[in-house]
């Protein structure tokens, strides 16, 4: 075996999206990694890491187009170690329901199946355990550093069912329970180790798994015994706690984190009227990572229209953040078709998203353009046309990078009406918080342009249309609750959660730990988000997690989190 110091570590990138985080994770561990650029590079590699994000079919076609399929198989057959990640694990199997006509590499028995969304949200997005299913007789053989007490970050709509039957006893290493289904979460056979979860996004636990692949001889003995049936795999999916940073340029042109009160980010006139400055984006995000945040969202609320897109400051924010933060990063703002100021280059929304992914983002958040897409969707339905035409940013980004990469950010406000008949056909709820004239009903109007313009679209119309278009998650804000510290809008969140089968993030209004447990218990949301109370340390992230745990809500413990 080549010594760790001298081994040549390569990354197999077929254009999957965010591989920067993996590069940064390897460098954080003190190693360098090179890209496989041609088929000849496979012969130079001692070990290969093969990450994948997005669609199974896109991954296989990309490998075929680059001429990588046969060299990859030859590399594995040579006995040199390979580590696959997410889709990089899935393509090792025979095929996938996601792309029925596309064959996988067929190295392992089984097919990748779509999760059942009738009993849970899909994608499987968040932190879960990886429970070891085998008992191996090992002496001096090193093993992948996976621990059942740790939590790992998963984000996928398709998985390999764990059955403990057939040849699975030869290659399955860990399994994971999500809802009523149990999937293979890692495989290990011979020189091949692969994970369904993302180690580069799993904090210290994930970096430990990466380190074990880089530093150890992971050749597995043939003898193995299955010790757990699918029913023995425990449910250990956790509620995510997300820190959000609203980023914009202040009056001096400096990029700062700010926070609004009902979307007004300026201090009062007697305080000078300046943009509130709560810190530098990367420094604050790193603090949240260290404090145990499960995800971090950057929402860009400055347009930067006077700059070429390549020079947009948020790209550099992502690059710097991804060097020191190893949990998922979301970027919102400006994910649309863009024309550089000189008119020389036009960036499609997919290209904009691609630059964000290559700079370190894992998900992009679409706001105003999601509302416009929903309007077009319902207009086509009204006209008797096929509602999906492949022209929206949501559809195009989801097709390329997977629906888990697309978040829609919803900025609604209450519109009170005296009866449902006065709502002009919009979805109405009966509220326990009457309007200014005693109205007992309201609907939630979607807004664009940072809440400055209302549209004739309600929240239910928006989220159902965007789910159909391919969005994988809803970030649900509320203008009426923003900055009030009075608690989340439970009525809005519960109504939205009931309308979709994709994960929902509760946002706007949290002021104390009890607000977090209340919204989880009353609505079943998969994630809770806050901004100002975290920025100002009024409620620390650790206090929120401790409270949730005390209330019986599963979380990723802070002590197992992110110090790396």
TrEMBL record:
Instruction: Set out the biological process GO terms recorded for this chain's protein.
Output: L-histidine biosynthetic process
Listed binding positions for L-glutamine are 86
Q: Known EC number(s)?
A: 3.5.1.2
* Record's catalysed reaction(s): 5-[(5-phospho-1-deoxy-D-ribulos-1-ylimino)methylamino]-1-(5-phospho-beta-D-ribosyl)imidazole-4-carboxamide + L-glutamine = D-erythro-1-(imidazol-4-yl)glycerol 3-phosphate + 5-amino-1-(5-phospho-beta-D-ribosyl)imidazole-4-carboxamide + L-glutamate + H(+); L-glutamine + H2O = L-glutamate + NH4(+)
Q: In which pathway does it act?
A: Amino-acid biosynthesis; L-histidine biosynthesis; L-histidine from 5-phospho-alpha-D-ribose 1-diphosphate: step 5/9
InterPro entries in the record, alphabetically?
Aldolase_TIM, Class_I_gatase-like, GATASE, His_biosynth, HisF, IGPS_HisA/HisF, IGPS_HisHF, Imidazole-glycPsynth_HisH
Q: Does the keyword Hydrolase apply?
A: yes
Q: Where is the active site?
A: 86, 198, 200, 246, 411
Q: Where is this region: PRFAR binding?
A: 367-368, 409-411, 482-483, 508-509, 531-532
Which residues of this UniProt protein bind substrate?
334, 477
Question: What molecular functions are annotated in GO for this chain?
Answer: glutaminase activity; imidazoleglycerol-phosphate synthase activity; lyase activity
Q: Which domain of life is it from?
A: Eukaryota
Class of enzymatic activity (EC top level) = hydrolase
Alphabetized UniProt keyword annotations = Amino-acid biosynthesis, Glutamine amidotransferase, Histidine biosynthesis, Hydrolase, Lyase, Multifunctional enzyme
Chain ranges of the Glutamine amidotransferase domain: 11-204
PROSITE patterns on file: GATASE_COBBQ, GATASE_TYPE_1
- Homology family: Belongs to the HisA/HisF family. In the C-terminal section; belongs to the HisA/HisF family.
Functional description taken from the UniProt entry: IGPS catalyzes the conversion of PRFAR and glutamine to IGP, AICAR and glutamate. The glutaminase domain produces the ammonia necessary for the cyclase domain to produce IGP and AICAR from PRFAR. The ammonia is channeled to the active site of the cyclase domain.
Q: What is this protein called?
A: Imidazole glycerol phosphate synthase hisHF
């Amino acid at each position: 075996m080549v010594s760790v110091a001298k081994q040549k570590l390569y990354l197999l990138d077929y254009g999957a999206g965010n591989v920067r985080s993996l590069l940064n994770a390897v460098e954080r561990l003190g190693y360098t990694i090179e890209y496989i650029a041609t088929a000849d590079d496979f012969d130079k590699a001692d070990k290969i890491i093969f990450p994948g994000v997005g669609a199974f079919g896109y991954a296989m076609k990309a490998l075929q187009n680059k001429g990588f399929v046969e060299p990859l198989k030859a590399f594995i057959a040579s006995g040199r170690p390979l580590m696959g990640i997410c889709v990089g694990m899935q393509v090792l199997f025979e095929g996938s329901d996601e792309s029925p006509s596309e064959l996988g590499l067929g190295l392992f028995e089984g097919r990748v199946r779509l999760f059942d969304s009738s009993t849970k949200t899909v994608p499987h997005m968040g932190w879960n355990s990886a429970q070891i299913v085998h008992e191996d007789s090992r002496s001096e053989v090193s093993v992948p550093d996976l621990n059942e007490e740790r939590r790992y970050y998963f984000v996928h709509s398709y998985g390999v069912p764990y059955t403990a039957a057939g040849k699975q006893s030869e290659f399955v290493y860990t399994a994971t329970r999500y809802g009523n289904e149990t999937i293979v979460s890692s495989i290990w056979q011979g020189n091949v180790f692969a994970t369904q979860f993302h180690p580069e996004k799993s904090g210290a636990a994930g970096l430990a798994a990466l380190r074990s692949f880089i530093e150890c001889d992971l050749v597995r003995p043939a003898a193995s015994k299955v010790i757990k049936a699918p029913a023995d795999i425990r449910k250990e999916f956790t509620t995510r706690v997300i820190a959000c940073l609203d980023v914009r340029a202040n009056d001096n042109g400096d990029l700062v984190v700010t926070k609004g009160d009902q979307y007004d980010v300026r201090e009062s006139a007697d305080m000078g009227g300046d943009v509130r400055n709560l810190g530098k984006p990367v420094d604050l995000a790193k603090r949240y990572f260290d404090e145990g945040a499960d995800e971090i969202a950057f929402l860009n609320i400055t347009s930067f229209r006077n700059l070429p897109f390549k020079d947009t400051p948020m790209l550099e924010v992502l690059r710097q953040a991804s060097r020191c933060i190893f949990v998922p990063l979301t970027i919102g703002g400006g994910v649309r078709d863009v024309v550089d100021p000189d008119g020389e280059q036009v960036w499609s929304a997919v290209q904009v998203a691609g630059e964000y992914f290559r700079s370190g983002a894992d998900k992009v958040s679409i706001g105003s353009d999601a509302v416009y897409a929903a309007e077009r969707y319902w207009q086509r339905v009204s006209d008797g046309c096929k509602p999906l035409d492949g022209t929206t940013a949501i559809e195009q980004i989801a097709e390329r990078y997977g629906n888990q990469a697309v978040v829609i950010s919803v900025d609604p406000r209450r519109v009170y009406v005296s009866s449902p008949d006065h709502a002009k056909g919009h979805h109405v709820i009966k509220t326990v918080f009457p309007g200014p004239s005693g109205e007992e009903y309201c609907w939630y109007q979607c807004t664009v342009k940072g809440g400055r313009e209302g549209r004739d679209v309600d929240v239910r119309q928006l989220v159902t249309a965007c789910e159909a278009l391919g969005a994988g998650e809803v970030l649900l804000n509320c203008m009426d609750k923003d900055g009030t510290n009075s608690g989340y809008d439970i009525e809005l969140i519960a109504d939205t959660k009931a309308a979709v089968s994709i994960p929902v993030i509760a946002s706007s209004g949290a002021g104390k730990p009890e607000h977090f447990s209340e919204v989880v218990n009353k609505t079943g949301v998969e994630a809770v988000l806050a901004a100002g109370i975290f920025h100002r340390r009024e409620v620390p992230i650790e206090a929120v997690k401790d409270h949730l745990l005390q209330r019986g809500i599963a979380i990723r413990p802070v002590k197992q989190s992110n110090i790396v």
